[in-house]
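Quick one, probably user error.
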């Protein structure tokens, strides 16, 4: 079960010239298609004089990877797929890369184009700082006062994180538990005679 993935902590850029064409890679974190297309629209306005804005993104949703890419006027398969290949090679999710190209008058050929787009995307991602994300299940438990010390020993970040605590007639604690550890965590609660709440 995939409950951990790598993404970008922040946007990154990388610029290079290849045979008089200029390539600008822009990588940024995204959560949805709409987020991506809003950013693409902004980049298109910002770089209105560019020849091509080719792109790819890869999203993580409920444990499933989903991706899209576009050549944006370049010969089929020479831009979008190489950019996507760079994202996959970096093992990143919830990430988009747009490579902006200003044509410099020298044709690169299909092989040269593919290399230029993949290399620009790879270097852009290499320049970015990486963040780790976890997929959690929220588990709420009721804890008597005499067992409060036990509860705090359950914390094991980033696998088990204390999300909230409520003190009152019944003391309730919310834990975010990595999906892959949820079953084991449930068994541990049973052993410690702690009650899970709906």
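Nope, works fine. Designed sequence:
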């Amino acid at each position: 079960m995939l409950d951990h993935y790598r993404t970008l902590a922040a946007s990154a850029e990388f610029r290079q010239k290849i045979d008089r064409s200029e390539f600008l890679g822009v990588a940024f974190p995204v959560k949805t298609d709409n987020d991506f297309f809003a950013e693409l629209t902004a980049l298109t306005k910002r770089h209105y004089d560019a020849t091509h804005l080719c792109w790819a993104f890869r999203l993580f949703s409920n444990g499933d990877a989903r991706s899209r890419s576009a050549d944006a006027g370049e010969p089929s398969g020479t831009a979008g797929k190489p950019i996507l290949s760079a994202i996959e090679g970096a093992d990143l999710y919830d990430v988009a890369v747009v490579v902006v190209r200003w044509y410099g008058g020298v044709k690169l050929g299909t092989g040269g184009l593919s290399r230029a787009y993949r290399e620009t995307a790879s270097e852009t991602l290499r320049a970015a700082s990486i963040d780790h994300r976890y997929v959690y299940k929220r588990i709420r438990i009721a804890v008597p006062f005499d067992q409060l010390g036990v509860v705090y020993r359950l914390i094991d970040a980033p696998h088990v994180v204390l999300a909230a605590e409520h003190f009152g007639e019944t003391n309730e604690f919310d834990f975010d538990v990595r999906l892959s550890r949820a079953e084991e965590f449930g068994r541990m609660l049973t052993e410690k005679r702690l009650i899970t709440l709906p």
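The longest strand covers residues 52-61.
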